[in-house]
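pasting input
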Amino acid sequence: NAGVTQTPKFRILKIGQSMTLQCTQDMNHNYMYWYRQDPGMGLKLIYYSVGAGITDKGEVPNGYNVSRSTTEDFPLRLELAAPSQTSVYFCASGQGNVNEQFFGPGTRLTVL
Amino acid sequence: DQQVKQNSPSLSVQEGRISILNCDYTNSMFDYFLWYKKYPAEGPTFLISISSIKDKNEDGRFTVFLNKSAKHLSLHIVPSQPGDSAVYFCAAKNTDKLIFGTGTRLQVFP
């Protein structure tokens, strides 16, 4: 099992550009999550999904969108990139009846 | 308002000694607590957890203690090894979500 994979690893965007961060898991987990981590801070939940077709906002959803058309994939969309979205983004997955989440390696995004 | 707090940003411990990482929380409805370990340029990895109905959970060199009356948990690593040098995050479970602390950077030196 590859676990949770994220692409790209790094990306530099200009203000106003858009992009999609990809996340795929092969563990057949029904729950998936997107977090961002700013320097010196913990992980903040952006969006999460409890199953295909179901998404919900986390703590910091503004400026982002998600979709969950399959169990495996949970892409995160930035429509109009802003410098405040410079961060490291982590995708995670888990089973509903299991407490721990499994994380991908992260995407480091810089918006200039 | 930060519901999960790790007040020590860093900790330095000699190899072979005990490392104690602390975490405080404010919400008494949290029913599960987890510790994650993170190396640079990698995602967090699960380390150990504890249910709110227990006060201790042990896994090899790692032990987590929960004091519900004080809303405090701690992670003990004995003996500490250089490979334990990483950032440690405390997390608390609230329904389907985890709420993370800001992390403590542990450095284990020879």
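fyi Chain A touches chain B through 24 residues (CB under 8 Å).
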